[in-house]
Design brief:
Blueprint (H helix, E strand, L loop, with lengths): L1 H37 L3 H9 L4 E7 L6 H10 L3 E3 L4 E3 L8 E3 L7 H10 L16 H12 L7 H14 L2 E8 L4 H7 L8 H8 L3 H22 L14 E9 L4 H17 L3 E7 L5 H20 L4 E6 L15 H9 L3 E4 L9 H11 L2 E4 L1 H8 L8 H7 L3 E3 L4 H4 L3 H10 L5 H13 L26 H9 L1 H19 L2
Parallel strand pairs: 1-5, 5-6, 6-7, 7-8, 8-9, 9-10, 10-11
Antiparallel strand pairs: 2-3, 2-4
Helix pairs in contact: 1-20, 2-17, 6-9, 7-10, 8-10, 9-10, 10-11, 11-12, 18-20, 19-20
């Protein structure tokens, strides 16, 4: 009888342990079933996905993340003007022809509404306001239209970007950023042969230390001011304070090529000196004639600087193009050169992958190297008109290329991260397991320093130190910021799934 009782006790204990182990899996299954049940209802999806932890936003541009209403508010507070002939924010005086004060603009609804459209792509996808400009021209024109309002509001931009991330349950952001010190560097090399990369580097070398120091001091100030705006460090901090922000120094590809090199050189030097800058990028309209002409030269520049700064990570805009926007010949090599010449670890957009020479071979290479593609569904729909079945998201996933969802310029596009997840379900047919993998990958393929929590695939087998939770794992997480963030995401996903009804 004692043996039988012991056997029953062991069975009960084993059953209890199995139940405890099954709970996370059953929570995940219930969460997946809930999403399946509402997949054809965008309003219900919005409610469901709003509270889902989304990990990182790896493709988010400073400036472009700000909504038009905020630019107009800051313009009014700063005594700036509205140019009624160009629909842009300009410096004073405001009492000259075609100029009115930004202050009080809300009392003139017709002009206020027109400015919202000039500073964003509001309504473009839905045909609202009868847009007369192409999506790409309207999108990129906004940056010149609101640029004047940016000066002096850098800290507010950081604060608002973090606040929106927190509202979307995004806990990590890599923000595309620049530095005002680049202007002097660009001027210093304007007469240097842009193909002589060694000469450009030599010209810039004595100027870079001061430029880096100045940029770091600026960001010290921006971050301190933004922390004050969000009451970080006080008894009542805003949720934004919990969002970790790093920066991708972003060079512009539509200026004279020597100037682009100068910006890239500053970016590499800054990323090497300041851990807040986790990598380098290059952006601006890829279809611009200067960008098209100099594309291969830009990739050579990046490769040259990468050789001098081998630890600096690269996420490069490449393939933000489609048939008809440029001749087919210009669709055939941009992603490949970003991967094979420049050495990118992540690709931003990657829309023209199917037009690349030997696209299948390139996809295999990207899968083998685990080169993440930053997918921006709203941006791609507005700028390129590519969405639904025409979007290559499914092609990348089928080939085993990792993908992550990001916002690109959520203020300009009038979107947010939750909307990107909704679109992924409605337009791309993704389900909960797919979204959960993307959340995990958004940290796994981030440029956070340190080792990953995972031996290989995010969500797979954990590293040896963390197979069993304990002091060894705690020490590992303390020494590896990436792993620590990944562990945080796992806890957040567990809490989310446990609460799903």
């Amino acid at each position: 009888m004692r043996s039988a009782a012991l056997f029953i006790a062991l069975l009960l204990a084993s059953g209890a342990a199995s139940a405890r182990e099954a709970t996370p899996r059953s929570n995940e299954a219930r969460t997946a079933a809930r999403l399946d049940a509402i997949a054809d209802s965008p309003p219900r999806l919005r409610v469901f996905l709003q509270t889902m932890p989304k990990g990182g936003d790896l493709h988010n541009h400073g400036g472009g993340s700000i909504y038009a209403e905020d630019w107009l508010r800051w313009a009014a507070a700063g005594g700036l003007c509205i140019a009624t002939d160009t629909d842009s924010i300009v410096p004073p005086p405001c009492d000259t022809p075609n100029r009115v004060p930004a202050a009080g603009l809300e009392r003139n609804y017709a002009l206020y509404s027109r400015m919202l459209d000039a500073l964003s792509t509001r309504g473009f996808e839905n045909g609202v306001n009868l847009p007369t400009r192409s999506g790409y021209d309207r999108f990129f024109a906004t940056f010149d239209a609101f640029g004047t309002a940016s000066a002096g509001n850098e800290a507010k931009e950081l604060a608002l970007t973090r606040e929106q991330a927190a509202a979307d349950r995004v806990s990590y952001v890599e923000l595309g950023s620049g530095a005002r010190q680049a202007r002097a560097l660009v001027a210093a090399v304007k007469d240097v042969d842009p193909t002589d990369l060694a000469a450009l580097s030599a010209k810039l070398a004595p100027l870079l230390p001061d430029a880096v120091a100045g940029a770091r001091a600026d960001y010290d100030r921006y971050e301190a001011e933004s922390a004050k705006i969000d009451a970080c460090g006080t008894a009542t901090p805003k949720p934004a304070c919990a969002v970790e922000m790093r920066y991708l120094y972003t060079a512009i590809r539509t200026i004279a090529p020597a100037g682009t090199f100068a910006q890239l050189a500053l970016g590499f030097a800054l990323a090497e000196a300041d851990p807040r800058f986790v990598g380098v990028n290059i952006a601006a309209p890829e279809h611009d004639p200067i960008a098209v002409r100099d594309y291969t030269l830009h990739m050579r520049m990046i490769a040259f600087l990468k050789a001098k700064h081998p630890k600096v990570a690269l996420s490069l805009h490449a393939g933000e193009l489609t048939l008809g926007l440029v001749p087919p010949r210009d669709l055939a090599f941009h992603i490949r050169e970003a991967v094979e010449v420049a050495g990118a670890r992540r690709i931003g957009h990657g829309i023209d992958i199917s037009y690349e020479d030997d696209a299948a071979g390139l996809l295999r290479e990207m899968a083998a190297k685990q080169i993440d593609v930053e997918i921006n569904l709203t941006s791609n729909a507005v700028i390129l008109g590519v969405k639904g079945k025409a979007h290559p998201l499914s092609l990348y996933r089928e080939a085993g290329v990792p993908v992550t969802l990001s916002t690109d310029d959520e203020g300009v596009s009038r979107s947010d991260m939750t909307n990107e997840y909704v679109r992924a379900v409605v337009e791309q047919g993704l389900r909960y397991a797919d979204l959960k993998q993307i959340v995990r990958d958004s940290i796994h393929y981030s440029f956070l320093p340190g080792a990953s929590l995972w031996r290989a695939r995010a969500g797979g087998v954990k590293v040896a130190a963390c197979v069993v939770q304990g002091t060894g794992c705690e020490a590992f997480l303390a020494a590896n910021p990436k792993a620590a963030k990944e562990a945080q995401i796992e806890r957040e996903l567990g809490v989310f799934e446990a609460r799903v009804q």
